[in-house]
Amino acid sequence: MHRSSTRRAIAAIAIPLLCASPALPASSAPAQPLRYRLDAQASSVHARVGFFGIASKTARFPSMSGGIQIDPARLDAIRLDVQLDARALQAGDSVTLARLKGADFFDVAHYPEVRFLGRTMAMTGPVTAYVDGDLTARGVTRPARLSVTFTAPPAQANGQQPMHLSARTTIDRTDFGMTAYRLIVSRKVTITIDAQMVPA
């Protein structure tokens, strides 16, 4: 009888305490990736190619769009999209410009867009990384890797401040069907991107 009374007394104390215990917090939902859009007015893209082995010529793409989607907790799962209007391409002189826009090179009448779409990123330092993806030019898509430098660690991005990055890659123009003038124009083309991204 004594034991039964003791058990009832313990239960009478324990049950209200359990009911009054605060509920465990529900697991928080995964954070959404941060989205930024490319500020074309504050960005630039250039393509430089060797000429006669002693000089170089540079083309500029002033018309562009795109953006970046990034999760500071999962920087590998990036999406970097840069779209260039090849019809707006600019060069230092009218002869070079006509050739670049013509069928031997960008053939802008048939292929008006140049696009890089990055899908994975490997950090090599707090603000440096490789971004791997695909480059499409003249209707041909090839794998490409950008060497990227951020002005601030992307792991600290908050989606409220602009994000600035510079990137560089070198391609073989013949991989994209630009095979003309091999004796005087280098096959290697260096592409540089200076991009200002603003919160979308």
From TrEMBL:
Keyword Transmembrane: no
Keywords: Signal
Pfam families assigned to the protein according to its UniProt record, in alphabetical order: YceI
Signal sequence extent: 1-25
SUPFAM superfamilies tied to this protein: YceI-like (SSF101874)
InterPro entries, sorted: Lipid/polyisoprenoid-bd_YceI, TTHA0802/YceI-like_sf
Domain Lipid/polyisoprenoid-binding YceI-like: 35-198
The protein, known as: YceI family protein
Source species: Novosphingobium olei
Highest classification ranks of the organism: Bacteria, Pseudomonadati, Pseudomonadota, Alphaproteobacteria, Sphingomonadales
